[in-house]
Amino acid sequence: MTRIKKAKTFAALHRRGDPLILYNIWDAGSAAAVAGAGAKALATGSHSVAEAQGWPDGEHLPLDILLAVVSRITAISDLPLSVDFESGFAREPERISANVARLLETDAVGINFEDQLIGGQPEGDLYPIYPLEEQVTRLRAVRAAADAAGVPLFVNARTDLVLRQGDISQHPALIGAVIERGQAYAEAGATGFFVPGLVTPDLIGRVVEATSLPVNLMTKPGMPDTTTLAALGVARISHGPFPYWRAMAQVRDWAAEAME
């Protein structure tokens, strides 16, 4: 399958009310396992990829290593692959474009691009969020790099506004800003809108209705089931770092049993 066909196939899998399920992977081995389970597409998770290579999450994993991992995944599977590219491994639009151009050489056809200012001055134990105008400029740089390469890259624009607020009683106050970002990201060239941390059905419905983009959510405790999310119009459900954590817990338990 050509890269352009893969990209178009991946985009077509995002349907409101019939969500694409992405069981996130971290290397070629996990990619083969998930593909063997009948996956329609593959997606990495930054936390899982970094930790599997011995690095903490948050762009501590060198870009060269990430690209090597991605290249091995695309080498063993012809399924469309989306890569969690965090915040682009740069702040400046020119460097973001250059990094995306390198990613496209791996045959990936999707990207998660977040608005968390990784490496910025932490607010408590959280990184700040890019100002909207700056993030829009950065997002345009992602799209420009894809256009220059002739690839209809699926740009899944992620906002961390909700995820960084652990108290769900505070989430309603954030929805206006979330919707504003979704609309701005769509105008800047995003293909999807990712709002990890959002779990409340009425708020999910509000976001889905307010954006033209297919909405992506991440499973976590307290999340509605897939049937409910489909009824709300969600188009994509990711599993984030949870598959990696479960797999490593199983390995640990098996190792402990073997050494008894």
From TrEMBL:
<dbReference type="InterPro" id="IPR039556">
    <property type="entry name" value="ICL/PEPM"/>
</dbReference>
<dbReference type="InterPro" id="IPR015813">
    <property type="entry name" value="Pyrv/PenolPyrv_kinase-like_dom"/>
</dbReference>
<keyword id="KW-0670">Pyruvate</keyword>
<dbReference type="Pfam" id="PF13714">
    <property type="entry name" value="PEP_mutase"/>
</dbReference>
<protein>
    <submittedName>
        <fullName>Putative carboxyphosphonoenolpyruvate phosphonomutase protein</fullName>
    </submittedName>
</protein>
<dbReference type="GO" id="GO:0003824">
    <property type="term" value="F:catalytic activity"/>
</dbReference>
<dbReference type="InterPro" id="IPR040442">
    <property type="entry name" value="Pyrv_kinase-like_dom_sf"/>
</dbReference>
